[in-house]
Amino acid sequence: MAYGARMWPVTLESGDLVLRPLRQRDKAEWMALRRRNADWLKAWEATQPDPSGPLPSYRSMVSSLNAQARAGQSMPWVIAIREPRAARPVMAGQLTVSGILWGSALTASLGYWVDREQAGRGLAPTAVALATDHCFGALGLHRMEINIRPENAASLRVVEKLGFRDEGLRRAYLHIDGRWADHRTFALTAEEVPEGLMARWRGSL
């Protein structure tokens, strides 16, 4: 089974969409994208319960994520798209597979955000399908979970399009925008998509 250094880094592609590792040299582009989307993401982003606690720097965040990736616990990807006049794929968001459990669980959680200017292009469901197929196929994971605020209509449409099952409400699951917030849990197992999630997504278009 692939894990640790053998599973990371990895780049995945589907058409014009690229999932590639988040890097230290992405700081300027990542920070600019986050500033532009601050209001768009504020209602859905996790916050620290202790407001006096220091926020991690970009460098420490990437170092921590990459350490988790090398340990086989996480896969932090940039969502990028190829544009006709761009020298390289342009950053359009982020997708992270986290909380990877091996052994008898073989499960992980998935979270993502997409640039507001790119919303509606199918980037989120394509990225989720691509990452899920990699987890089920290359890594041999069995279950993928996505937790979404009940008010987040855009993300609810993503899991609906991909056929994730609604497993119910988790009360006060994460600290979001200054308070503990409920989330709905959606999940999918490898047996439910023997043809692959990307094939299901493409077949629905």
Can you tell me about this structure?
Helices cover 29% and strands 31% of the residues. The chain has an 8-stranded mixed beta sheet, sandwiched between helices. Strand 3 (75-81) and strand 4 form a beta hairpin. By secondary structure, the chain is α+β, with helices and mostly antiparallel strands. The longest helix is centred in the middle third of the chain and has 15 residues, at 123-137.
- Per the CATH scheme, the topology name is Aminopeptidase
Q: In the CATH classification, which architecture applies?
A: 3-Layer(aba) Sandwich
Q: Rg from C-alpha positions?
A: 16 Å
Please tell me what the overall shape is: globular
- Low-confidence stretches at least 5 residues in length (pLDDT < 50)? none
Which percent range describes the beta-strand content? 25-35%
Family: Belongs to the acetyltransferase family. RimJ subfamily.
Keywords: Acyltransferase, Transferase
Organism: Arthrobacter halodurans
Pfam families: Acetyltransf_3
